Amino acid sequence: MKPPPGFDFPSPNLVCKLQTSLYGLKQASRQWYAKLSDTLRGLSFQHSHNDYSLFHKQTDTSIVLVAVYVDDIVVTGNDAAAITSLKTFLDDKFKIKDLGELNFFLGMEIIKVSNGLVVTQRKLATKLIKEFDCDNLSVTSCPLTGVFKDSYSVEPLADTTSYRK
Amino acid sequence: MTAALHTLRYIKKDPSQGLLFNDTPDYTLQAFCDSDWGQCPCTRRSVSGYFIMLGGSLVSWKSKTQPTVALSSAKAEYRSMRAVTTELAWLTRLFLEFQVPSILTIPIKSDSLAAIYIVKNVVFHERIKHGLIIHSSLDLCSLTNFAWNT
Q1: ipTM of the shown complex
Q2: Which of A66, A109, A120, B48 could join B35 via S-S bond, C-beta 3.0 to 4.6 A?
Q3: Total tally of structural domains belonging to chain A
Q4: The domain that contains B99 carries what CATH number?
């Protein structure tokens, strides 16, 4: 890691001893997770034993679930008061941005309909169609057919960057 | 690349297609599994697939080439049943943690009679370690109180 700009080493062979974790460090993600889970545990949330990035707080009648994906957090439950107090608490600690009702999460679009929720990846689908110039290709009603069995023997692609984004 | 483009042409048909998670308070789990047999022309490995429905909503699914070659279709199908069982084991534990009302006795549906017979035959089949108590109709086998091999 390079020293931050404006920080001059008096001699070239010195190392820094960090007092706090910094964004971009190898340990940053672990430190963030430890910080967040400590905070949530302070609010008597528990780790789910079956999914460690899922936290829950249960009483006889109420349940609040917190799903964490790095710094994207989805909160749900049947106790509106507890959810609000959790959000206020987190905002106090981390300055969160409350995006309201769940619309987008990890590239998935979540739409409320009368009988539940619909999860789609419309944005990704239209982006891919545009990116690979499928506008002039005809649509097909079958996802894959046996026609492609031979494609295993095809020479490897010269340029693989489009697969590695 | 042609195959990838073909898939895109399929998606193009309706890019906003999605999954519905309905809000009915139904916690019954149902699992379906299947596999092909040696369809990969290069390696002759099979592909197992499964999906799990929770009260009519799709919650878990997978399709993956098996790690080794299956010498019989029953073996390939049996592997897909094993894959779905491990996923169910995890899901059940997760649901129990959230006090979801009793969900045990989960039907696993397979179209392979041979694989169902293997699973049913607890006594002679030393490979089955799941402690399955199973009753079965022609294409349905049901699994109760499975104990995990931990």
Answers
A1: 0.72
A2: B48
A3: 2
A4: 3.30.420
